Amino acid sequence: MSGRIVARRVFMALALPIIIVVLWWVGTLNDTNPFVPKPVNVVSDLVTVWAGPLLVEQVVPSLYRLGVGLGGAIIVGVLLGVLVGLSRVARKLTGPLFEFVRAVPPPVLLPVLLLVIGIDDRSKIFLIFLGCLWPVLLNTIDGVRSVDQVLGDTTRTYGLRGWSRLRYFVLPASMPRIMTGIRLALPIAIILMVVSELYAALDGLGYQIMLFKQTFQTGPMWAGIFIIGFIGILLAFIFRVIERRVLAWYYGQREVESSER
Amino acid sequence: MSADVQGGVTGAEAPVLLSVQGIQKIYATTGGGGVEAVRDLTFDLRKGEFACLVGPSGSGKTTLLKVISGLMAPTKGKVVLDGTVVDGPPRNMALVFQEYGRSLYPWMRVAENVELPLKVAGVAKDERKARVAEALEAVGLSHVPKSYPWQLSGGMQQRVAIARAVAYQPEVLLMDEPFAAVDAQTRADLEDLVRSVWAKLGLTVLFVTHDIDESVYLGERVIVLSSSPTVILDDLHIDLPAERDQLETRSDPRFVELRHHVYEQIQKAKTYTGDTNTIRTVA
Known about the structure:
The complex is a heterodimer.
Chain A: H1 3-27, H2 39-50, H3 53-86, H4 88-103, H5 106-117, H6 121-145, H7 149-157, H8 162-196, H9 205-214, H10 218-246, H11 248-260
Helix pairs in contact in A: 2-10, 3-4, 3-6, 3-8, 3-9, 5-6, 6-8, 8-10, 9-10
Chain B: E1 16-28, E2 34-46, E3 50-54, H1 61-68, E4 76-81, E5 84-85, E6 93-96, H2 110-121, H3 125-138, H4 154-167, E7 172-176, H5 184-201, E8 204-209, H6 212-218, E9 221-225, E10 230-237, H7 248-251, H8 253-271, H9 276-279
């Protein structure tokens, strides 16, 4: 990629945020309300308050819980999804149950989890896990169910059974849907990460933001909210890099197909 | 069958390898009845034979091939391969599908696609590599082992599928209208390729097609099927020289004669009604 194209892309990505920040800056220039944040204050709070030990103390625990909860949801969701997706009986048995559990908004479960599991990391991790499980699980089931019939016949005629069928056919064939499930789980993970830290928490980004709010430190509070946004961007970026690698064949094939039409 | 095209039996000395015995296939339908795709089919393939099954479209050819390959159980009758009743895809059989775009793994490179069945079958790595290279060489694709299937043209993808079948070293090679979706020039090349692979490796080939010219050009034997529910209308020996050539063979008076004969049979097949109406919905 040439330098000019890169520069152009960066400009396109940043143009709108810059405009918004400028509008924000102009709009709050003469504002004296202490609860209305000003961009300059937010940036200075980001640097003076957050950058340093606070970032490590509060963001690392949050990211740890997010990582374990999301990672667990991906592993369990894919394993369970493959098992359920492969068996018609299992699909029929679990269908209504999954619909029911999925309809319950995960944050509602937090009080219950706090009572049952306790106020330590585990209840928070479990909440993130539970919220992220459904998109991964349901998409994996759909992915496994919708593998190509002809390819399935090919797999059978060449004697691929059991683990090799799974490893070389079912899993790669459902990978596009599995990745879709993970993509849907990312924002849920971030939301639940913060929500789980709003009550009965001792550390974490959500906890720290609440603390700033309760002590009327509006600037640092807003800076914390921005950090959540940056985490979202970072996660999406990491996901895209992994997805481009894992699904290179899928996007390549789609590109060829669309250019033939 | 008219006398002048009735041929002798191909390789009468060779033992029967594949025996299709009284196959009937009725698909269950939601209405509780069924659709009879294949009525009653019986034929034997001798070792080393190249037979074409030709029939009008919708003549249950694909159904028949799925039953023979063990992908689908027949309603009645059985398939015996090398003395064993087929009740699942047998190890010594390979199948090439019409839908080349959907029969290769798009997440694997060409060589990996060819290699996978061998890997799963537990063939040692060195031998695997040698067989993959040999098979790709045989189909003229030695230069693209690292490409992905979707980066290749349709004809090349079908060559990969053939290479995979060849590397698997089956005794019987089943082909389900493999060239129906490629352009005419590619098709001619692939026809000659299949003939040369057959001649070189001594495979037994059962080639399903709706194309009359193709069946006569390729086969040592042509089995003509009726429209669904399928029965055999004719079974004739193709007494053309073993060395086939797209130009020479196709203008050979004998080719024209045989082609004419099969064409007539197919026309009959189209209008063949039998007692179709009473059978279409079998309770």
